[in-house]
Each structure stands twice: as C-alpha cells, then as structure tokens.
Amino acid sequence: MVLLLIIAGLGVVTLLVILFAPHIRKYAAGGVCTSSARLDGKTVLITGANTGIGKETAQVLAVRGARVIMACRDVEKGEEAAASIRAANPKAQVEVRKLDLADTCSIRAFAQDFLREVDRLHILINNAGVMMCPYSKTTDGFEMHIGVNHLGHFLLTYLLIGLLKNSAPARIIVVSSLAHYFGWIRFHDLHSQGSYNGGLAYCQSKVANLLFTRELARRLQGTNVTVNAVHPGTVNSDLTRHSTLMMLFMSVFSVFIKTPSEGAQTSIYCAAAEELHSVSGKYFSDCAPASVAPQGRNDETAKRLWDVSCELLGIEWH
Ligand SMILES: NC(=O)c1ccc[n+]([C@@H]2O[C@H](COP(=O)([O-])OP(=O)(O)OC[C@H]3O[C@@H](n4cnc5c(N)ncnc54)[C@H](OP(=O)(O)O)[C@@H]3O)[C@@H](O)[C@H]2O)c1
To answer: For residue 204, which of 279, 117, 138, 144 has the smallest C-alpha distance?
Structure first.
C-alpha cells in the first residue's frame, strides 16, 4: 500500500514537472543580461574558456565585437571551442592561448608572452575552476582547489594588473559561487593536509575568490579598474565531472538547472553593462547585486589571505 502511494506520488510529481516544464525552465534560467553594450575595440581574456560558462561568455563577448583571448590548459580543446564559435559567428575574433593555472611556471610564461604580444587588456574574467576533485596538488604543491581557483588566478591578475591599469577603464570579473556560504579559510591547513573533503576545499576556494575581490577592489580605488565577483547559478556543465552523484543529480534535475549560456549571463553583465562602469568590490548573481556570507566580507581575513597568498607565490603585491 505504502509502495503504491509512493509510486503514485512520484507519478503525479513527474506529470506536474512535464506539464509545467516551460515555466520551470523560464524560472530556472534566472537573470538575463539586458545590456546590449558593444565591446568593439576591447580586449577580453577569459580563463577556462574551452567549455561551460567560460566558452559561452567568450562567444557572447566576441559577438559584441571584442577580441577574446581564450586561456585554456588544453589548447586542442580550446581550438575546438574557438572553431565552433567562429563557425557560428564568422566575424568573431577569438584566439586560444595555453594557460595551466595549476602550474605557476605556465602562468608566468603565459603572462610574459601576453604582455609582449597584446598591448591592451580591458576585461579579465577569472572563470576557470575545479570542483570536488580527488586530493591532488598543483605543480607548486598547493591543494588543487585553492591552487587553481584562487592562487592561480591571484598570480595571473598580479602579472596583468599593470596592463589592466594602462588600459583603463578596465574590469576584472571573478567567478565565485554561492557555495562560498559553506566555506571558510582554514589558515592553519589551507592545503587540507590534515583532513580533506573535496566539497569543503571547493567552498574554501570560493570564499577566497570573494575575499580577493574585496581586497583587490580596495587596492584599486582611483585606478579606473574595477573588480566584481559573480555567482553564475547552478549550471549544467563539466564542473561536476569528479562526482558521479552530482552528475546524476544534474541530469535528473536538468529542467531546474541553468544551461551554460544562462549561467554566463552574470559574467556578461559584469563585463559589459554600462551602469557598472564604476561599481567595484561587489558580488552579483542573476545580473543583480547579491549578499555575501559574513566569512566572505571580513576585511581582516581578506588582508590576511592576501599576505598568505603573496607569501605562497613568492611575490610582493603592495
Ligand atoms: N557549474 C556550476 O553550477 C557553477 C556554480 C557556481 C560557480 N561555478 C564556477 O563557474 C566557473 C566555470 O565553471 P563551469 O561550470 O563552466 O565548469 P567547467 O565546464 O568544468 O569549466 C571549467 C573550466 O576551467 C578549466 N580549468 C580547470 N582547471 C584548470 C587549470 N588548471 N588551468 C586552466 N584551466 C583550468 C577547465 O578546463 P578543462 O576543460 O581542460 O578541464 C574548463 O575550461 C568555475 O569557477 C566554477 O567554480 C560554476
């Protein structure tokens, strides 16, 4: 009897989902970037642009007239993505460059070539990310989440900040996540050597993204370079590749989840919307301001993380 009731209940829910699918999709799609600002003459750099949110962001910004440089760890995948963008938009100016954020030598080599060959950078989108990977370390011995999602982008931004300032007005967009609500910075064990949980390591790296945005915005006051963080929403992408459970969840509940194109909207909004020209240090979700968890808006923690990051990377960034 109980089993029959459960089966009937599931049947009703499935029927409702099918009936209301178009409405559910519209709601799940979230905020849309309504600014139609053109980006002709602008140069954009997007990390992790060969797939998911990064690729969609690259495509839209290229269609708006920007020269888009897609920084990818796998150049072959990057070229395939660039080719598909060009096939859909023959005028799109997209280029692929090699960048592995899990290796500071690769980041430095990338920046060196970039600074030699590109004379302007108006929009930097720190988009690449890893989530819930098995415990692993970057070439420099950093835990993979904090290493790629935070430290790799920290070093990249440091190396390109002079060019961004010289190209001002310029914008930096840091792709964080709502997951930051569940994380905190474990200064005593930043690299999870004591204990490791892939989910918590991801959340920690996403809090780090927000603290970096906060401290960088403070330091960039008066430079006409802004920096804002975004939450793209829950997006059906390759990010869940390390978790079978999450991949299953994403496919079963795909009707409730954003497509990569929908997930790119807030990054596009922060990159292009005219009304944000002087907005800095903020966090956006669904193309609107959103609130940051207390652990992501603590100035003391932000400064401490800045110093620790500089020390780990062997740089001085005053
Ligand atoms: N999907 C979501 O629901 C969601 C929610 C909140 C926030 N986000 C954030 O959105 C951003 C984009 O994620 P996504 O959903 O588009 O995921 P995705 O489809 O997995 O894309 C991630 C990108 O990052 C690249 N990447 C990973 N490690 C790298 C490294 N060491 N060096 C350079 N690039 C590297 C990947 O390259 P390969 O393809 O070569 O691996 C890929 O291009 C991430 O920062 C993520 O945390 C996503």
So the answer is: 144
Place 255 in a pLDDT band, splitting at 50, 70 and 90. Answer: confident
Nearest alpha carbon, ligand 1 atom 36: 48
Q: Whose CA is nearest to atom 7 of ligand 1?
A: 177
Longest dimension (CA), the chain: 73
Identify each DSSP E strand in the chain by its residue range. 43-47, 67-72, 93-98, 123-126, 170-175, 225-231, 283-285, 288-289
Ligand 1 center to 156 CA (angstroms): 16
Measure the CA–CA gap between 294 and 207, rounded to whole angstroms. 10
Nearest one of 23, 27, 30 to 232, comparing CA atoms: 30
Summarize the chain as % helix, strand, coil (round to 5): 55, 15, 35
Query: Rg (Cα) of the chain, in Å, rounded?
Result: 20
- Under the banding of pLDDT at 50, 70 and 90, the label for residue 29 is confident
pLDDT over 70 (residue 267) = yes
Q: pLDDT tens-digit profile of 133-159?
A: 999 999 999 999 999 999 999 999 999
312, 314, 316, 317 alpha-carbon torsion, rounded to 10°: -50
CATH of 35-234+263-313, one of 3.40.50.720, 3.40.1550.10, 3.40.80.10, 1.20.1090.10: 3.40.50.720
Label residue 310 by pLDDT band (50, 70, 90). Answer: very high
Q: Where are the domains of the chain?
A: 35-234+263-313
